[in-house]
Amino acid sequence: MTFGLITIVLGGGAVIGLVSWFGVQSIGHEVLQAGWVIPLTTVLLLLQLYVSAVAWRIAVGEARPRVGRYFRIRWIREAVNSLLPVAQLGGNIVGIRMLVQRGVPGPLAGAGTTLDLTIEAVTQFLFTLAGFAVLAAVAAHSDAWAPWVTWALATMALGLAGFILAQRAGLMRIIEWLASRLNGVFPALSVAAVRGLHQELIRLHQDRTALAKATGLHLLAWILGVAETWITLTAMGRPTSLAEAFVIESLGMAARSAGFVVPGALGVQEAGFIVVCDLFAIPAETAIALSMVKRARELLVGVPGLVLWQWSEGRRLLQRGQATGPGVRTPRA
C-alpha cells in the first residue's frame, strides 16, 4: 500500500508537471474543445469491456454466469486495476473471487482468468507490432527509431514466451504448493480453491477453438481504441488519418502498459502520447489533452465500477448476515 501511495504521488506529480510545463490554458482549451466526444468515447470503452468480457467467458469455458454478469465483473475488474494502487493485480483477484461467488469452481476461475490475461497480453503485443509496421510504412527516417523498436519488441516477445512456457511447465503448481503450506498457518485459506489449477490451465490451453475466438475478440477490443483516438483528435481540430491514429493508440497503450506499477499509469501515459504524437508533428499539449480525455472517460466508467463493486460486496454481506441471523445456527468451519 505504501508503495502504491508513493507511485500515485510521483505519477500525479509528473502529470501536474507536464501540464504546467506545456501550458494549462492551451491543454484545457483542447480538452474543452473535445469535451463533446467524451460520452461517445465512454460508450466505446464500455463496448471494449463488453467484448473483453465475452473473451474472458470463452477463455474460462464456463456457461455460468451469463455474459451480462461477466461484463459487470469485467467492469469492476477494470475499475479496480485502473483507479486503485494494486499494480494491475488486485482487479484480477477480485474478478476471480466474484466468479467463484457466482458458482464457477475456484481452479477453473483462476486458470481461465490467467489464460484471459495471457491472451490479452499476446494480442496487445500483436497490436503494438502492427502499430510499428504501420509507422514504418507512413513515417520517414525510420533508421532513427528502428534499433530501439527492435529491442523493445524482442523484450516483449521473450517476456510473453517465458510466461507461456512457465504456465506449461507448471507455474500454477507452485501456487498450489504455496496454498497447501499456508493452510497450516491460515486454516481459513481454502486449498480446494486452487487444487487442480495446473490441470485446468493446461486443459484450457488445449481448446484451440476457444483460444482463437478469445484472441479475435481481444484484438477487436484493442482496435476499437483506434476509433476513440481518431475521433478525439479530430474533435480537437487535429485531424489525423486512421493509420496515424492506429500508431498513436497502439504505441500509446504499450507505454501505458509499461507503467503498470503506477495506478492509472499516471505520467507514463502522458509521456508516451507525447513521444508518439511527436512522430506526426502533433504538439505535446495536444498529446496531453488526448490523454486527459481518455482519463475523463476512464473515470466516468471506473468510479461507477468501484461503486458497483462495493454495492455487490455489501449486498452479499447483508444476505450472509440475514442467513446467520437470530435463530439460525452458523455451522462451524
Automatic annotation (TrEMBL):
Pfam (any one): LPG_synthase_TM
Protein name, UniProt field: Lysylphosphatidylglycerol synthase domain-containing protein
Mode of membrane association: Multi-pass membrane protein
Transmembrane spans: 6-24, 36-59, 79-100, 121-142, 148-166
Species per Swiss-Prot/TrEMBL record: Limobrevibacterium gyesilva
GO cellular component, one term: plasma membrane
Keyword NADP found: no
Domain of life, source organism: Bacteria
Keywords on record: Cell membrane, Membrane, Transmembrane, Transmembrane helix
Organism placement in taxonomy: Bacteria, Pseudomonadati, Pseudomonadota, Alphaproteobacteria, Acetobacterales
Keyword Cell membrane: yes
Locations listed in the record: Cell membrane
InterPro entries to which the protein is assigned, alphabetical: L-PG_synthase/AglD
